[in-house]
Write a structure and sequence with these properties.
Nucleoside Triphosphate Pyrophosphohydrolase; EvaA-like; alpha+beta; 7-stranded mixed beta sheet; NDP-hexose 2,3-dehydratase family protein; single chain; EvaA-like_sf
């Protein structure tokens, strides 16, 4: 007769091990103050170059004759298509019927974003990669151990193997700490998800060039620096099951879930893929697809050389935002418990219409022409925040594999009742970081910007203890 062994549903020691790693600001392999030098050394060890090119010089990419969609000849990787969006209610509040067109990236395959962890001297260390992405402002940033699309790790590009991929897709992959499908940028991707994984290795792990072991405390320190920890690392780190030292919240967990469900049901969004050549308000030149008013973003093309990638040279399209983004949480303490103000944000590319975003997630230049009454809620509060109210600030770039120079100023700002009332406007709610940690264990509750903010909140909380 087969026997069945019951497993413990929750690891009782894991939150304490994570907390110890977060509190350890010097690792056993690389000192925090030497990380910049290590990244510079890895940059010198390889050839990196990114050049803008006309669309006609894209190798393997072309505009389809029938649709104008930008596609790869293999049928893999991704396509740039048009999207027609209609919504009852404006993206940042209750309002009139909205209707717009835009380019969108369609990449249906699920990628793997995975960080391998291992204990050294009793402390969890995280295996981070010095990875070049063509859209990063400084090219080289700390990425997860594995950051690969399915096309990459199945070698559709006929390049080299993805290093360490066996720890995340193999049968003997070790102890899973986190494994969840999460959305990508819903404003630029159509129904895109990635598998966010953290796996604790069993046995020895070879340390390859371009990789280093860091504690969570070291990574937390680096999250306070501009453009060091890349977006994919931030989203994976947000999925860590931190323990909850606080008790209570303004909304119970079931009330919060009910509020999210209500937000999802009260919004009606229709996103229809259409031929890229037919979208009004956008024009295509030799090197750029851009909005007629010069706002939002452009579609451009680049040629890339990267000596340490699976393929060392290629060309591709990238989305390039117009202006620096601002992404912020307003925070207040209620009953001694810190809360942040989340926004039930509608983005056309989401699978489920609404995900929780930060209080503010906008590019101010896109709204500069509007009168104050038409500007997004809380945007001006964030822009005018005095320095003594700012609890966290850093500039982080977005996903460098698809977006060129896409940077946002990430902020946590202490607010008062006049700036952020206890009873917020529709579409907003006060939640605790611990509640966000609980929600992020499940897919499509927090958008990618909120997940970055959660990783930064965790880093800031450890620093202030």
């Amino acid at each position: 007769m087969p026997t069945h062994t019951l497993q413990t549903r929750e690891s009782k020691d894991l939150p304490a091990r994570i907390a110890l790693s977060a509190a350890t600001v010097q690792g056993t392999h690389l000192r925090t103050e030497h990380v910049d030098d290590w990244l510079a050394e890895r940059a010198r060890a390889h050839t990196f170059r990114v050049d803008r090119i006309p669309f006609a010089e894209l190798d393997g990419w072309s505009f389809q004759e029938a649709t104008g969609n930008l596609v790869h000849r293999s049928g893999r990787f991704f396509t740039v298509e048009g999207l027609h969006v209609t919504e009852e209610g404006e993206p940042y509040g209750d309002g009139p019927y909205a209707d717009w067109y835009q380019p969108i990236i369609k990449q249906p395959e699920v990628g793997v974003l995975g960080i391998l962890v291992k204990e050294f001297d009793g402390v969890l260390h995280f295996l981070m990669q010095a990875k070049m992405e063509p859209g990063n402002p400084n090219l080289l940033q700390l990425s997860p151990t594995v950051q690969a699309t399915r096309s990459n790790y199945t070698k559709a590009h006929k390049g080299a193997d993805v290093k360490y991929i066996e720890y995340f897709v193999g049968r003997e992959r070790g102890r899973v700490i986190a494994d969840v499908l999460q959305s990508e940028h819903g404003s630029w991707f159509y129904h895109k998800s990635n598998r966010n994984m953290i796996v604790e290795a069993v046995g020895d792990v070879p340390l390859l060039d371009d990789f280093c072991w860091l504690t969570l405390g070291q990574i937390g320190e680096l999250l306070h620096r501009d453009n060091v920890v890349n977006m994919d690392s931030r989203t994976v780190l947000s999925c860590l099951p931190f323990g909850d030292a606080t008790k209570g919240a303004l909304l119970s967990d079931i009330a919060l879930l009910s509020w999210i469900t209500g937000e999802r049901t009260r919004h009606c969004v229709r996103a229809e893929r259409v031929p890229l050549e037919s979208i009004p308000g956008w024009k295509r030149g030799e090197s750029t697809i851009e909005h007629e008013e010069g706002r939002y973003f452009n579609v451009v093309a680049v040629s890339v050389r990267a000596g340490n990638r699976e393929v060392t040279g290629w060309t591709q399209p990238l989305f390039e935002p117009v202006g620096l983004g601002v992404t912020a949480f307003l925070t207040r303490a209620f009953g001694g418990v810190p809360h942040v103000l989340v926004h039930a944000r509608v983005e056309a590319g989401f699978l489920d219409t609404v995900e929780l975003g930060p209080t503010v997630q906008y590019t101010p230049d896109n709204y500069a022409h509007l009168p104050e009454t038409k500007r997004p809620p809380f945007l001006d509060t964030v822009l005018r925040a005095p320095a003594d109210r700012i609890r966290y600030e850093a500039v982080h770039s977005e996903e460098g594999g698809r977006f060129l120079n896409a940077e946002s100023r990430y902020l946590v700002i202490e607010a008062d009742e006049a700036e952020a009332p206890l009873d917020p406007p529709p579409g907003y709610a006060w939640v605790t970081p611990a509640q966000l940690t609980s929600l992020v264990r499940h897919g499509h509750y927090l958008n990618v910007q909120a997940r970055t903010m959660l990783a930064c909140l965790n880093a800031t909380a450890v620093r202030t203890r």
